[in-house]
Amino acid sequence: MLDQADDSRSDDTCAIKRLGSDDEERWDDFAKDAPQATFFHRAAWRGIIEHGLGHRCHYLYAQRNGVITGILPLAEIRSRLFGHALISTPFCVYGGVVARDPDSAAQLTHAATILADELHVDYLELRDRELHQTTWPVKDLYVGFRKAIDPDPDKNLKAIPRKQRAMVRKGIAAGLQAHHGGNIAEFYRVYAESVRNLGTPVLSRNYYMRLQRMFGEDCEITVVTHQGQPVAAVMSFYFRDEVHPYYGGSVARGRDLAANDFMYWSVMQRAVERGARLFDFGRSKQDSGSYHFKKHWGFEPRPLHYSYHLVRAKTVPNISPTNNKYSLFIKAWQRLPLPVSCALGPWLARDLG
């Protein structure tokens, strides 16, 4: 399937290769310059998923005349509970093929389907922002929220609809303070409680430490405190001129303080200081609480096109919390003591790509 060295090919033939450690810089240079690429196309995710979560990766790239013309990050999730899948990219909201030309895109997609068939996975999933696979089944569960931000913070505040802007001011009046460059211990304590309250297993602290170490200044933690105590925290990713607040939440008492609104407003201000011009609020499930929260901030939802090549599976998978068969588990998880959820969570969360 993958061309390692074939002298019979002409120089202008598109060859599909596997990413090696010596290719990572070239891969990232391509991702940095490709308009369709995202933070989640960076090569470092391969090491994070393989070494931090224990899943095998298959990062493919297209090359012509010695130059990379397309990339496709893939990871194989094998779980007794949730099945066997090949995903671009698990634990990330975006993925899929990024290519300079249609032939490179087609060759990468074809290589991925062959790989999925060879691995006998249940399905191949490509998490595209735009619809590319027009003949594949598509899941319409998720939408994305992205909006340009102004260099003037006052204009950004005024752009927030009145009711939600009042929540930001409520947080300011309550004396909330935002601290950028926060530490993992404070972040994890808040975030783990937040996702436990939602009935969701949390990944290990080491996973978030690895993200911070691998991405350096492009990974920033913001901690919001009230009277010196952390009430909200978020880990944000920076890519080109975009900011993506990705892992975030608040403790229970933070809700009465409008801590989440204050936190995201603080991240927006910080992003402007760092030169960002686009705020990516991530994905949300249709008609969920986070969906309505982001709409109230003035962001308009856009469909995310998660496309599927079915191998052993007969239908598009549904391992979302919206699936009724997980409702009892979610309710039970919400009642777990926090130390117990932190101990058990990583074992489950590592398979929920």
From TrEMBL:
<protein>
    <submittedName>
        <fullName>FemAB family PEP-CTERM system-associated protein</fullName>
    </submittedName>
</protein>
<dbReference type="InterPro" id="IPR050644">
    <property type="entry name" value="PG_Glycine_Bridge_Synth"/>
</dbReference>
<dbReference type="InterPro" id="IPR017469">
    <property type="entry name" value="PEP-CTERM_FemAB-rel"/>
</dbReference>
<feature type="domain" description="BioF2-like acetyltransferase">
    <location>
        <begin position="163"/>
        <end position="295"/>
    </location>
</feature>
<dbReference type="InterPro" id="IPR038740">
    <property type="entry name" value="BioF2-like_GNAT_dom"/>
</dbReference>
<dbReference type="Pfam" id="PF13480">
    <property type="entry name" value="Acetyltransf_6"/>
</dbReference>
<dbReference type="InterPro" id="IPR016181">
    <property type="entry name" value="Acyl_CoA_acyltransferase"/>
</dbReference>
